[in-house]
């Protein structure tokens, strides 16, 4: 399997709906076909389970269904997995918690990052854009953002490497990217999560002339769009989830794109936890810091309504 593929999984005609569901798989050449299929199947199972709650107004039920389905597929998978980025810490979930061991114990020893349902509110409201995501890397290579739930991120495609810098202003980064892409600033499209904390960021970008796409949720999908050359998004920036940031780093690594991050606690309590955990909150994290291996496997499956 190539490092950048899509795969259609057949949905049994005896199940909730017939047809196919399309997954994205990146980095599949680094692992056995059996493990790649198992990881993809886990994202498909989570997406189908969450789809049963699509538009039904209960994001917690959708998330719980996705978690249980994903874990059920990963437990017998042919690897020795250790959850570094899981559900347990921020969401207080009992399954797929940080530190949980998954897999048969046979096969490669891997760090695991999961987001069984990225975009819970989208599923709750029956809107598109939610995905179920898993990333693997060799044991000890994924960044562990212990006790910090939010990260400031800057993400783009390969031409941005060596050009963009998280310490620069948003306007300066847009200017630099426009120059390297050979496009006017007015044709640079920036994805930003639609959150109150980003009001000043959006105002600066619009004032500078860039186009802004506001994402209600789902910063993993927006980041992958930004790292894909020729896509509809040129740049993703702003504060989103740290777990999603590490997952995203695996995808960006496989795509050959650019990413930097910086931990960004959003409350006094979070700040105290981050300091107690020994994190350097001024440090800009590079892609090598976030995932210290090229041997990444990333799988993502979108959630749609079941009928």
UniProtKB/TrEMBL annotation:
Binding residue positions for Mn(2+) 2: 115, 118, 244
Q: Keywords on this record? A: Carbohydrate metabolism, Hydrolase, Manganese, Metal-binding
Q: Does the keyword Nucleotide-binding apply?
A: no
Q: Which reaction(s) does its UniProt entry say it catalyses?
A: beta-D-fructose 1,6-bisphosphate + H2O = beta-D-fructose 6-phosphate + phosphate
Pathway it belongs to?
A: Carbohydrate biosynthesis; gluconeogenesis
List the Gene3D superfamilies: 3.40.190.90, Fructose-1,6-Bisphosphatase, subunit A, domain 1 (3.30.540.10)
What cofactor requirement does the entry state? Mn(2+)
One GO term in the molecular function aspect is: metal ion binding
Protein name, entry field:
Fructose-1,6-bisphosphatase
What organism is listed for this UniProt entry?
Cryobacterium adonitolivorans
């Amino acid at each position: 399997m190539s490092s950048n593929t899509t795969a259609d999984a057949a949905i049994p005609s005896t199940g909730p709906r017939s047809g196919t569901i399309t997954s994205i798989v990146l980095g599949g050449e680094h692992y056995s076909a059996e493990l790649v299929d198992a990881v993809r199947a886990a994202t498909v199972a989570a997406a189908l389970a969450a789809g049963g709650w699509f538009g039904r107004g209960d994001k917690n039920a959708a998330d719980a269904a996705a978690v249980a389905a994903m874990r059920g597929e990963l437990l017998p998978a042919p690897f020795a997995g250790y959850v570094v980025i899981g559900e347990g810490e921020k969401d207080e979930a009992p399954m797929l918690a940080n530190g949980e061991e998954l897999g048969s114990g046979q096969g490669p020893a891997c760090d695991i990052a999961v987001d069984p349902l990225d975009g819970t509110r989208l599923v709750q409201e029956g809107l598109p854009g939610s995905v179920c995501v898993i990333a693997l890397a060799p044991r000890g290579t994924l960044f562990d953002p212990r006790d910090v739930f939010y990260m400031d991120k800057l993400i783009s495609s390969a031409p941005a490497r060596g050009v963009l810098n998280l310490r620069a202003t948003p306007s300066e980064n847009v200017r630099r990217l426009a120059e390297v892409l050979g496009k006017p600033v007015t044709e640079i499209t920036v994805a930003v999560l639609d959150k109150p904390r980003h009001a000043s960021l959006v105002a600066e970008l619009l004032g500078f002339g860039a186009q802004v796409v506001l994402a209600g949720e789902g910063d993993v999908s927006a980041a992958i769009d930004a790292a894909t050359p020729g896509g509809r998004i040129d740049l993703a920036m702003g504060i989103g989830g740290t777990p999603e940031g590490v997952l995203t780093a695996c995808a960006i690594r496989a795509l050959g794109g650019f990413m930097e991050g910086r931990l960004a606690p959003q409350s006094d309590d979070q700040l105290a936890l981050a300091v107690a955990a020994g994190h350097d909150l001024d440090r800009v994290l590079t892609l090598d810091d976030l995932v210290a291996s090229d041997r990444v496997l990333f799988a993502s499956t979108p959630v749609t309504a079941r009928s």
